[in-house]
Write a structure and sequence with these properties.
It is built from nine helices and six strands. By secondary structure, the protein is of the alpha/beta class. A six-stranded parallel beta sheet has the order 3-2-1-4-5-6. It binds adenosine-5'-triphosphate. The site of adenosine-5'-triphosphate has 18 residues, from helix 1, strand 4, helix 4 and helix 8.
């Protein structure tokens, strides 16, 4: 086993990045003993409508959000690519970079985990990384809420001890609790669109970027 602490990855549309994402990364760093977390804004997210902000803008907002935190970095590869942003090829790329031995931890909120079977080549995720699943208000990580294929993988792979993340480079599912913040990018876009304030839901630097670039503005 590699002695280097596990590396965390947090993918998302980040349309825009908000404190729900950032607390997830920050609490994962501490709770899971990660060396760092890479935020990976999707370029063309395959499972949802086209984002409101352009990939370059969502990348710039992620960079603004991470700028004052030395434990966060931003991986631009998906955002600058015209290909659909599938996670398996991203994990393969990071694996080539860090080698086969070091633990890699894909961070997900419970809602994203529950939708996993719709992901391209989803079963291969477990060969490439561990999955650490954070609590998110409104989503219960219960086998009854999972499709049967996912429930089977969950039953086989779930570990409630974070040390599991260091025993093998990939393959476990580790649920963990984080501060409940019922913040979503959808609600932030709706607030801004309706002319309401989104202050205290996301970093001031990101709000500045949004207002300078007139993103999510009222009609
Ligand atoms: P949208 O409302 O546009 O669907 P979102 O707020 O859910 O966006 P995403 O970019 O889709 O944000 O999420 C990226 C990742 O962060 C996902 O794994 C998601 O589960 C997780 N996440 C987002 N917000 C929270 C939150 N408030 N608490 C815990 N996890 C979150």
């Amino acid at each position: 086993m590699n002695e280097l602490p596990p590396l965390g990855l947090l993918g998302g549309t980040f349309d825009p990045v908000h404190f729900g994402h950032l607390r997830l990364a920050e609490e994962a760093l501490d709770r899971l003993g990660l060396a760092g977390v890479r935020l990976i804004p999707a370029g063309v997210p395959p499972h949802r409508e086209r984002p409101h902000a352009a990939a370059a803008q969502r990348l710039a907002m992620a960079q603004a959000a991470a700028a004052d935190n030395p434990r966060l970095e931003v991986d631009a590869a998906e955002a600058v690519s015209a290909d659909p942003s599938y996670t398996v090829p991203t994990l393969e790329r990071v694996r080539r970079e860090i080698g086969p031995q070091r633990s890699l931890v894909l961070l997900l909120g419970a809602d994203a985990f529950l939708g996993l079977t719709a992901w391209h080549r989803w079963r291969e995720l477990f060969e490439l990384a561990h999955l650490a699943v954070a609590t998110r208000p409104g989503h219960v990580l219960d086998a009854d809420a999972m499709e049967s294929g996912l429930a089977v993988q969950f039953a086989v792979r779930v570990r409630h001890d974070v040390l599991a993340l260091r025993e093998t480079p990939a393959g476990c599912i580790v649920p963990f609790g984080i501060t409940a913040l019922d913040i979503s990018a959808t609600a932030i876009r709706a607030a801004l669109h309706g002319g309401a304030s989104a202050r205290y839901l996301l970093p001031a630097a990101v709000l500045d970027y949004i207002s300078r670039n007139r993103l999510y503005a009222p009609d």
